[in-house]
Amino acid sequence: MTALTLTTSEIRDLRAQAHHLDPVVAVGSDGLTPAVLREIDSALNAHGLIKVRAHADDREQRQAWLSQIADAHGAAVVQHIGKLLVFWRPIPEKEKTIDEDRRPGPKVVKMVRNSSRGGQRPEVRHVKVLGNQRLTASGKVKRSKPKQKSVKKRSLG
Q: Residue 7 to residues 12, 18, 51: CA-CA distances in angstroms?
């Protein structure tokens, strides 16, 4: 993969976003091992914008790691300041699996109850109704009855 290129305004915006981030991956004295490269890839997939701390005193070594990581993962180099390396890659779209057997989840229902005294505002409440519940006309939440299990008759023989 080749490294992404960004415009100066995009780099400026990403630097501002990365300012408050903590490093999620550290490159130790062993350098860029396959485990470190896997961690960087998974962090880029999860967050998109990451900081990497390089524990090397040699600036040329950190520069080499910077270009190697960017090329290996198709990421853009946002910043290299001291021992911190900042990378960005767009987060890939997650595949949604549709489960046919899945039932509907909880929903919020707006319940309006008129005042017993005339001329006052009605009482408005938002009630969470689960999949096995319903809201009655009087404003109460009732559970649906469980399905009857079939009872098999045993023969006495």
A: 9, 16, 19
Structure tokens at 43: 């962090």
Is 90 exceeded by the pLDDT of residue 1? no
pLDDT for 26 equals 94
Alpha helices in the chain (DSSP H): 8-18, 34-47, 59-73
Q: What is the mean pLDDT of residues 21-29?
A: 93
Structure token digits, residue 4: 């992404």
pLDDT tens-digit readout, 75-118: 999 999 999 999 999 998 888 888 888 777 788 888 888 877 87
User: Within a 13 Å sphere around the CA of 69, how many CA atoms are in the beta-carbon half?
Assistant: 37
With tokens 């899945």, the residue in question is 102
Tokens of 104: 């509907």
pLDDT band at 54 (very low <50, low <70, confident <90, very high): very high
Q: What element of type H or E holds 86? A: strand 84-88
d(CA 96, CA 79): 34
SS3 111: strand
CA 25 to chain centre: 19
109: tokens are: 């229902």
Place of tokens 């559970």: 143
